[in-house]
Specification:
By secondary structure, this protein is of the alpha/beta class. It is 31% helix and 18% strand. The chain contains ten helices and 16 strands. The strands form five sheets. A seven-stranded parallel sheet has the order 3-2-1-4-5-6-11, with helices on both faces. A three-stranded antiparallel sheet has the order 14-16-15, with no helix packed on it. Bound molecules: NADP nicotinamide-adenine-dinucleotide phosphate (NAP). Residues 1-269 form the RmlD-like substrate binding domain.
Length: 345
């Protein structure tokens, strides 16, 4: 498939381009500020506020499908008009369109929202997302509008970085105990979007995680997974009227999930440390294992066993993936807390 990923330089867009390339698709992707170092992608600078530029790129790329993950929370012209421009370009080229929308189109007054729920936004951002949805439905009725929730990954999302900054004391604030969302793992969401692009879906789809949890619980789960001090993650209710922002928005993705091969895991599942793969007698080969340590240097100093404690930062190297190590009593002492490691697949 020839795929055009608009907003390919963003957090979600990078995962979509990566998975699309690995699946053998030919990928054209866009950035607005700086070109990501992702190889094997035909990168183009694009500002979706320009209807002509979006159309020109689509005519040049002639994609089978377009996935639009571009937005700017505070900019109506990008989020609303830009979404419309992409729909016009998809219609002009006959490409399938998958547009990423948000749970922000809802007020949170209803207990939950399924694919048939009409938008009732309470924030300018939610209104811009809802306006884009309306334009897309009119211009490209065969498009998929995929509403999602907080996007979390393996340490690199803005939500996870904030939790780490709180734990490190490099930022202040608290995580709201009463602001509820259905976070989704970025790899699940990207896989679902690629499914939408390849199959005859049309209309509104909900692609959010299975668990409705507060931002505070999300932060504590991230802290537990990453070996951070949970006591350093403050929680507090949101003060009334402080933000034009919905409080408790639960996306019900049941109907969409029933049609997807991709499982939309809940945060309690994807943030839980995986069961130990080394629960008997672990043999750590330094050539194969590199540990990602996020706990204190003091703990690392108590390490025993033939392990390396190199800290890996930055993007996951190709061919590596995560696993977890659980305490079994027979593992080296410094893995006696739940930890994650990188290993060659
Ligand atoms: N992150 C979440 O928790 C969350 C929750 C619900 C819904 N969503 C939705 O998920 C989608 C992706 O979110 P994300 O977190 O991946 O966003 P992100 O990391 O902020 O990426 C946004 C992308 O949009 C591009 N962009 C911004 N303004 C643009 C413009 N005027 N013209 C062209 N491109 C522009 C950015 O390009 P540069 O980086 O090159 O400037 C970047 O590629 C969005 O539709 C968002 O509404 C996200």
């Amino acid at each position: 498939m020839e795929l055009l990923v608009i907003g390919g330089s963003g957090y979600l867009g990078r995962q979509v381009t990566r998975q699309a390339r690995l699946a053998g698709h030919s990928v054209v992707a866009t950035f607005r500020t700086s070109m990501p170092p992702e190889p094997g992608v035909d990168w183009h600078k694009l500002d979706i506020r320009s209807r002509d530029d979006v159309r020109a790129l689509a005519l040049r790329a002639r994609p089978d499908a377009i996935i639009n993950a571009a937005y700017l929370q505070s900019d109506w012209a990008t989020t609303a008009d830009g979404g419309m421009h992409v729909a016009l370009a998809a219609a002009a080229t006959g490409a399938r369109l998958v547009h990423v929308s948000s749970d922000a189109v809802f007020s949170g007054i209803a207990p939950s929202y399924d694919e048939s729920s009409p938008p009732d936004p309470v924030s300018p951002y939610g209104a811009a997302k809802a306006a884009a949805e309306t334009a897309i439905k009119g211009i490209a009725p065969a498009a998929v509008i995929a509403r999602t929730s907080l996007i979390v990954g393996d340490g690199d999302s803005k939500h996870e970085r904030f939790v780490h900054a709180l734990a490190a004391g490099s930022t202040s604030g608290a995580l709201f105990t009463d602001e509820v969302r259905c976070p989704i793992h970025v790899t699940d969401l990207a896989a679902a979007l690629l499914e939408f692009a390849a199959a005859p879906y049309a209309g509104i789809c909900h692609a959010a995680g299975a668990d409705a949890i507060s931002r505070c619980e999300l932060g504590l789960l991230i802290a537990a997974r990453d070996g951070l001090d949970q006591a350093a993650i403050p929680g507090a209710p949101r003060a009334p009227g402080t933000l034009p922002h919905p409080l408790d928005v639960r996306l019900d993705s049941t109907r969409t999930q029933a049609r997807l091969a991709t499982r939309l895991r809940g945060a309690r599942e994807f943030l839980a440390p995986a069961p130990s793969l080394f629960c008997r007698k672990p043999e750590f080969r330094t050539s194969q294992l590199v540990f990602r340590r996020r706990t204190s240097a003091a703990m690392a100093a108590t390490s025993t066993g033939p392990v390396v404690s190199t800290v890996i930062s930055g993007p996951m190297p190709t061919g590596w993936s995560y696993l977890s190590i659980a305490d079994s009593g027979s593992v080296p002492r410094w893995t006696s807390c739940l930890d994650r490691a990188l290993y060659r697949a």
